[in-house]
Amino acid sequence: MKLTVIVVGRPGGLLADAIREYEARAARYWPIEFVEVKAGRGRSAGDVQAAESARVLERVPEGVELFVLTRPGGDAWSSSRLARYLGEAEVRGRSGIAFMIGGAFGLSDEAIRQADRRMRLSTFTLPHDVARLVLTEQLYRAGTIARGEPYHKGEE
Exposed end of the chain (fewer CB within 10 Å): N or C? Predict the structure, then answer.
């Protein structure tokens, strides 16, 4: 089972190195691809959001289960739940799971409707680079949980 993380923009500034580090760590546990689509420019936030969402949706592989990271309406998942879910998806023979992370204006309602699952990383609104860092760290953590390695110290 392959994981795909589709994000708007490239990481920059202080978080770039941390994002790359956790992407490399997560890749030790899962076949994983990180796809960056061009950030949008436009006259309005709605135009930018629509253009970015279209680019993200174009990069979703066929036949995968699609997760959207969104704060409004997204379900809170624990690290252990994510680890169990990914493990069970492998056993069920899932071809893959894709995660979508929008840009500064989020993803369009249409993109969110196309997702099979909605996940939130926090009740806070997070910049997309922070969301990418948190997701990649959680994918790494899920791998360590699945293999019984000592990285994860949490109860749940």
Answer: C
